[in-house]
Amino acid sequence: MENIQSIKQRFEIIGNDVKLNRAIEKAIQVAPTDISVLVTGESGVGKESIPKIIHSLSHRKHAKYIAVNCGAIPEGTIDSELFGHEKGAFTGATQTRSGYFEVADGGTIFLDEVGELPLTTQVRLLRVLENGEFLKVGSSQVQKTDVRIVAATNVNMFEAIKKEKFREDLYYRLSTVEINIPPLRERKDDIHLLFRKFASDFGRKYKMPTIRLMDDAIQMLLKYRWPGNIRQLRNIAEQVSVLEEGRTISATTLHGYLPNAGNTNLPAVVGSPKKEGDFSTEREILYKVLFDMKGDLHDLKKLTLELLKNNDTEKVQEENQNLIQKIYGNENQDITEDNGAPVEVLHLPEPHAEQPVTQSFQEDKYHFAEEIEEEETLSLQEKEIELIKKSLERNRGKRKAAASELGISERTLYRKIKQYDL
Predict the structure, then answer these.
(1) What DSSP string runs through 126-149?
(2) Closest to 391 (Cα-Cα) out of 411, 415, 407, 412
(3) Which of 25, 96, 290, 413 has its CA 20 to 30 A from that of 191?
């Protein structure tokens, strides 16, 4: 078995970071087997080197090695690219075509950006991993293949599974062994080493003296976060090599090539999860307030109707204690006027005995409630419908979660869905 240092020299891997060495060591250990491997890490960290190491040290090294960028193939043609198609399977299929899994039989396939695969293709890939079988597009004949699959992704797979964008069973089949490549910002001792290597390469390529960094420029290089990792470092080394006339680079000069270099020490909130019930826009917050106001209005109408029916304030207050508390909050909490004097809640004056009830009131004692109903605008109903639709979309149609977000019971939500034909 080859040692780590010889593998680095063979595949031109620069760096002595402990995590990087561990990743290479794991690749060397799993190479002789046919175990599926998932390489994870941020974009630009050099994930493509690990599949090459695994293939070159395996018993498949004399067979084909095919690298496929799953994110670069359109969704409509990726099945045909991977598994092939029969003549006439779709418009433009003028002849039978072999896919990558058929061509690489006996070898290794590297599926880069595997997290971008469509769900339908994920099902086909799972079948290949389980029993080595696949179907060409437009064919009913099962074909066998013997390939080693090494996949790579910069996607957080657990988040993708949670959002139902990646199959959980496929993830566990791919990640029999998971190899993580650390980001460049965690490899402080390797940054300057890599920059010197790139600067030397570009000096030879463009036939000019190699650039050198001053001490302050080296410190700036180490403090930068490198969101693009090794790929970004290489591009900056090339830019500085070509554009700068002087061969000694100061921090001031280097600063112009590092985007947002002045904000490297500022704290940032990364990937904070959005809580259930949060609203992304002020407009949705307004709809939520209007929705709550309409509920309070219905409660007030009900309470007013009870008062008009019974003409007994104390009895109504006793029978509707929960409703009063819902509208006004704690029933024992005093409400004060601007001058600080306490105001008694809902103690309306009793009607005087000598004041007869008018004939018009006897004929229509519910006119107050009906007038309120007429004042409700259609726009409020439209906003309520839109709010319910948005809540159902956010909760993927789960009524219980949507009802909880809207602050109403599931039964009420079901009634409104039927009422508005949603």
Answers:
(1) HHHHHHSEEE-BT---EEE---EE
(2) 407
(3) 25
Q: How far apart are CA 242 and CA 199, in angstroms?
A: 10
The better pLDDT of the pair 264, 102 is held by 102
Instruction: Give the model confidence (pLDDT) of 333-374 as tens digits.
Output: 444 444 454 544 444 444 444 444 444 444 444 444 444 444
CA-based end-to-end distance of the chain: 65
| CB of 308 closer than 8 Å to CB of 368 | yes
- E strands of 113-231, at which residues? 133-135, 142-144, 148-153, 177-180, 212-213
Give the residue from 125, 149, 172, 151 showing the smallest Cα distance to 34: 149
Which one-letter amino acid corresponds to residue 317? Q
Tokens of 215: 């001490």
What integer is the mean pLDDT of 21-30? 96
Q: Which two tokens stand for residue 86?
A: 């029969």
Question: What H or E segment, with its residue span, contains residue 85?
Answer: strand 84-85
Give 410-416's long-range contacts (Cβ < 8 A, gap of 24+): 413/388, 416/384, 416/388
Question: In the chain, what's the furthest Cα-to-Cα distance?
Answer: 111
Q: What is the pLDDT of residues 394-418, one digit of tens each?
A: 777 777 777 777 777 777 877 778 7
68 φ, ψ (degrees, to nearest 5):
-125, 125
Q: Which of 117, 133, 132 is nearest to 79 (CA)?
A: 117
Written as six digits, the tokens of 362 are 């006897």
